[in-house]
Write a structure and sequence with these properties.
Length: about 350
């Protein structure tokens, strides 16, 4: 079975190969490519039955038609999110699509706290100073987390892991979700309307998927409700935050800090070395100019534990497809019956 993977990171490659070797042995041939999948790279899938895609690959109708025309029969997404895949087109083309429905929630939850602490305690600014042997404390004044209010937007597995850490800090817990999570309630979380969460929280962290109804969930209205000295963290999906509204808020001198591991126009930028190029994305470049903003390149999930689990789940999805099975990870199957 010939398999091709796109957008494979250097540290991901051995974990992906190990997972497929364990499950298939010499019954498979895995080709790993660093470039992302798009209309230009799609022809390289010729002769392969399975495509292993990443979140920054482009799998629109045109690309899917190209893949189907070369003999590809399955798209195995190496991620939970799949908003980059045209599922309707995949069904029409008879392509099986599967995703990784879950992996270590601690990887993202812990990194969200790393962002919150880094911006709240001015860690990056302090590190830059001390590298220049500047040991002044001017401008580095932070705040205790203990006793303050955290707003958790989305209390699934990752949001719950984030909440447990917040509980350990001794924070007041506010939550917003379509359904209340008993685990979070047991920790003392109070579920409140979204407007109240944003207005009362000293720290807001986003842990919901990107869906049509959550696109720009954090818009100008929500940002206006936030305390001027509060912190916003997004380690979920870039499209949850209206970047233009966030820039306007920052220009007005509001928010003590913003930690972003995702950005709504990150495709074609994140995971790539752009250091020798002119940054043509003016909004991203503007974000980088604010001293209270920390941007990382979608690395919250990037731990050996999580990436290993993603690789194992992807290999299992391929095995299920080869055996004619479906699972909770299956999004589309050839006869059009999505799971």
């Amino acid at each position: 079975m010939k398999i091709i993977a796109y957008g494979v990171l250097t540290d991901e490659r051995p974990l992906l190969r190990e997972a497929f070797d364990r499950r298939f042995g010499d019954r498979h041939e895995l080709r790993c490519l660093e470039p992302f999948l798009d209309r230009d790279t799609a022809p390289t899938a010729a002769g392969h039955r399975i495509v292993l895609s990443s979140v920054n690959d482009v799998l629109d109708a045109e690309v899917l038609r190209s893949l189907a025309g070369t003999g590809v029969e399955m798209i195995a997404q190496r991620a939970t999110g799949h908003n980059n895949i045209d599922l309707d087109a995949a069904r029409e083309l008879g392509l099986t699509v599967a995703r990784v429905s879950s992996y270590s929630p601690y990887s993202v939850a812990e990194f969200a706290w790393a962002l919150a602490l880094a911006v709240g305690r001015r860690v990056v600014r302090a590190a830059h100073r001390t590298r220049e042997f500047d040991f002044r404390l001017d401008g580095l004044l932070g705040r205790d987390l203990h006793g303050r209010t955290v707003g958790v937007v989305g209390t699934g597995k990752i949001g719950t892991a984030f909440t447990r850490i917040a509980h350990g800090f001794g924070m007041r817990l506010l939550g917003w979700d379509v359904a209340e999570n008993p685990e979070c309630l047991a920790l003392g979380m109070e579920y409140v309307p979204r407007e109240r969460l944003f207005s009362e929280s000293d720290l807001v962290s986003l842990h919901v998927p990107l869906l049509p109804e959550t696109h720009h969930l954090v818009d100008a209205a929500m940002l206006d409700l936030m305390k001027a000295d509060s912190v916003l963290v997004n380690s979920s999906r870039g499209g949850l935050v209206d970047t233009d509204a966030l820039l306007a808020t920052l220009r007005a001198g509001r928010l003590a800090g913003v930690g972003l591991d995702v950005y709504e126009e990150e495709a074609g930028v994140f995971f790539l070395d752009k250091s020798l190029e002119v940054m043509t994305d003016e909004r991203l470049a503007r974000l980088m100019t604010f001293p209270n903003v920390l941007v990382t390149s979608h690395q919250a999930y990037f731990t050996r534990d999580a990436v290993g689990q993603i690789a194992e789940s992807t290999a299992r999805n391929v095995e299920d497809h080869a055996a004619g099975r479906t699972s909770d990870n299956t999004l589309t199957v050839p006869d059009g019956r999505g799971q």
